[in-house]
Design goal:
By secondary structure, the protein is mainly β. Helices cover 4% and strands 39% of the residues. The N terminus is likely disordered. It holds the Pfam family Cu_amine_oxidN1.
């Protein structure tokens, strides 16, 4: 019987033709796996791996890269985002599965098509048997490609073949724990250096290495590396080759003094340093470390970066300061600037004569003070030098810290350098200012201010027209701590736009009707030193006449003027003033906040306190690398806070910072008061600061743009923020 042929209906044909399983397109095969580089190819050895890949399709944030290993490898599942980089950036998420022998990397940013490098540290352990093994890499867009790596017997491999010749090296230090400059080579490699590849330098002991080394403190063939990282667990420094140092077999590496490498703590006649590139390891000639007085001298010890000498180390005494520092490969040039930060602002006079400061025997061309910092500018005749000696003579009017202690330090900053001094001591009896009565507060809480109610305090302008010279009348209702005559000051912070003269006549100012003993200007701020003692909880009238020379801004707006004292860290109060006829909104009435009801602040709110390097979240306290502080009435917090307290994607380096929330991206530039919210440029109330390598950002501006609520909680004396 002839089988009957069944016809498929036309409608079903149409459905099948458009079904996903008929139209699915396999992954493209444009990915190429170009190379593998490991710090150790020995059997059963922990090794850092670097994978060079060329991707043919752009990867977006959130896309994944998967690395698969043969079963004989061991993967450390405790690894995380800090152990892996994709083209130098940490991923958003890392999943490590030792059972399935794979690492899944979720990207934190877009990656353009082309060559990329994936670095995996402290995760991979080589197989136990010497053989060739396969590693595969694939992406969400491209299918897997494999590469073979040859694992050698550890007893003979030493992580690769050794060179037949040892290379020369130069070590500037002689004694145990001396801080030292080290020059490796020049010598010839078996392979040409390739842009982006890594050179591994292994030191004989881990106590030689600091926790990190800046790129500016290292040279490879006379060029600054792309990156430098320290792997303390293996005594290694990992150096990424820059383009200008590549395409040659010649290699010279210089670690400057400022890299903070020190000689081993144990004296020995023969120490060696190894350099590995590709699969070849090179060993230096030996160098000797002697036991002696070198490390105890102070000037070369790893515990100090520069020396500080005082003519008088008594508490509160006026003294000259003599400091000497080494900038490594950087130089201070004619017309160049260097910043010196002192332990506290009250050590520095409001105005300092340039004739009282010398650098390498030459008088500086200018001195500017701001808070606890002095900014020095060298003269045009200054001869460039990497060694700098700065002398503040007695007429600089620097005074020592008022309390005895042995842990005081100075910080010097110039270019990319941020150098902390050796510790210096202040000892002896505390100097008591005869104009200031002793025991102004109870001995048990000498620094706790009285709660001062300035809810009805006032600030007004005598004239409000644009570009017009104006006086300022300030009615302070109370201080939380007493202000001592001739020693403490009232600080009036004027916003950007107001024109403030560099020198102000004290006769133009009256404090309770009395001319102050001194008036100084510091940027937009006025520092007014009263001639009389101002007690706690007593009203103060502060009148600044038009003859002081302050002029209104050129733009019609409502501006906020703040008041501080040198005795209290927090804002005393701030008030809005109208310029050019601008209308003050009702919400900008006196800003001194009443105590916040605890029930209005969620328990999940993150909190920070000024000058405390920590934040609180869910009743737990977590450390911050830098304490929040105020600048011109604005609270600045470290970028780390937004990442760890608010779980916002936050990226930063020494020049830029970005905070990402959903589709909103806020980009900052260190030292600039301009930021971008998306593609819109905005003006910040203060410039972004860099403190100890951490960008300090205005919390109010970020909260407003990302729709967070923020405020001051008087119950805990903290700034809170939540969404």
């Amino acid at each position: 019987m002839k089988k009957q042929t069944k016809l498929i209906p036309l409608a079903m044909v149409a459905v099948l033709a458009t079904s996903p399983f008929l139209t699915a397109v396999p992954k493209a095969y444009a990915l190429t796996f170009d190379g593998i580089d490991a710090t150790d190819y020995g059997t059963d050895e922990d090794a850092d791996y670097s994978f060079d890949v060329n991707i043919g399709s752009k990867l977006s944030k959130g896309d994944q890269i998967t690395i698969k290993f043969d079963d004989e490898f061991t993967l450390n599942e405790d690894g995380d985002e800090n152990d892996i980089t994709v083209d130098g950036y940490a991923p958003k998420k890392v999943e490590i599965d030792d059972d399935n022998k794979e690492i899944v990397i979720t990207l934190n940013k877009d990656v353009s098509k082309g060559d990329i490098t994936i670095d995996v540290d402290d995760i991979i352990t080589n197989p136990e048997d010497a053989a060739s093994y396969t590693i595969k890499i694939e992406t969400d867009n491209e299918s897997a490609k494999s590469k073979t790596v040859k694992i050698k017997d550890s007893s003979s491999s030493s992580g690769g073949k050794s060179s037949s010749k040892s290379f020369d090296l130069s070590v500037s230090g002689k004694y145990t724990e001396d801080k030292t400059k080290i020059t490796l080579g020049e010598f010839t490699l078996s392979d040409k250096l390739v842009d982006g590849d890594y050179v591994y330098v292994t030191f004989p002991t881990d106590d030689m290495l600091p926790s990190s080394i800046d790129e500016s403190d290292v040279e490879i063939n006379g060029e600054e590396p792309k990156s430098v990282s320290v792997v303390k667990s293996s005594n290694q420094v990992k150096i990424q080759v820059p383009k200008k140092a590549a395409s040659t077999k010649d290699l010279e590496i210089v670690f400057y003094d400022s890299a903070k490498i020190t000689l081993p703590s144990k004296a020995k006649s023969s120490y060696y340093i190894k350099v590995k590139y590709k699969s070849t390891t090179y060993e230096s000639k030996s160098f000797e470390v002697k036991s002696g007085s070198g490390s105890s001298s102070g000037s070369s010890s790893s515990s100090s970066d520069f020396t500080v000498k005082l003519a008088d180390n008594s508490p509160g005494a006026r003294s000259s300061y003599n400091i000497s520092l080494d900038l490594g490969k950087e130089k201070l040039s004619s017309g160049g600037s260097i910043e010196i930060e002192f332990p506290s602002a009250d050590m520095i006079p409001p105005i300092m004569s340039a004739s009282s400061v010398m650098i390498n025997g030459d008088k500086v061309s200018s001195v500017t003070s701001y808070g606890s910092k002095l900014y020095l500018k060298t003269a045009s005749s200054f001869k460039s030098s990497s060694t700098v000696n700065i002398i503040f003579d007695y007429d600089a009017y620097i005074s020592n810290p008022k309390m005895p202690g042995s842990d005081y330090v100075l910080v010097a900053r110039t270019g990319s350098k941020n150098i902390k001094s050796e510790k210096f001591s202040i000892s002896g009896s505390v100097v008591t200012d005869p104009t200031t009565p002793t025991t102004p507060t109870t001995p048990t809480t000498p620094t706790t201010p009285v709660v001062a109610n300035n809810s009805t305090a006032t600030i007004g302008l005598t004239k409000s027209a644009l570009n017009t010279t104006t006086g300022i009348n300030i009615g302070i209702k109370a201080f939380g701590l007493p202000v001592a005559a001739n020693t403490d000051f009232i600080e009036v912070v004027l916003p950007v736009g107001f024109r403030v003269p560099t020198i102000m006549n004290a006769a133009a100012v009256k404090v309770n009707g009395v001319q102050p003993s001194y008036v100084a200007t510091r940027g937009q701020n006025l520092l007014i030193y009263p001639a009389q003692n101002l007690p706690v909880n007593a009203p103060v009238s502060l009148l600044i006449a038009e003859s002081a020379g302050i002029a209104n801004p050129a733009t019609k707006n409502v501006y906020s003027i703040g008041v501080y004292t040198s005795k209290e860290k927090n804002l005393l109060f701030a008030r809005p003033v109208s310029v050019g006829g601008a209308v003050i909104p009702p919400t900008q009435q006196p800003q001194t906040q009443q105590p916040q009801l605890p029930s209005t602040i969620p328990a999940t709110a993150a909190r920070v306190k000024l000058d405390v390097a920590a934040f609180t979240l869910n009743n737990k306290t977590y450390p911050l690398s830098v304490a929040p502080y105020t600048l011109n009435g604005n609270t600045l917090v470290p970028a780390q806070f937004f990442k760890e307290a608010l779980s916002l994607t936050t990226q930063w380096n020494n020049t830029t910072c970005a905070i990402i929330s959903g589709t909103t991206v806020i980009k900052f530039t260190i030292g600039s008061n301009k930021a971008k919210v998306g593609s819109t440029e905005v003006t910040l109330p203060v410039a972004v600061q860099l403190k100890n390598g951490m960008p300090m950002l205005p919390i109010r501006m970020i909260a407003d743009n990302l729709k967070y609520k923020t405020g001051w909680d008087t119950a805990t004396n903290s700034v809170y923020i939540y969404k």
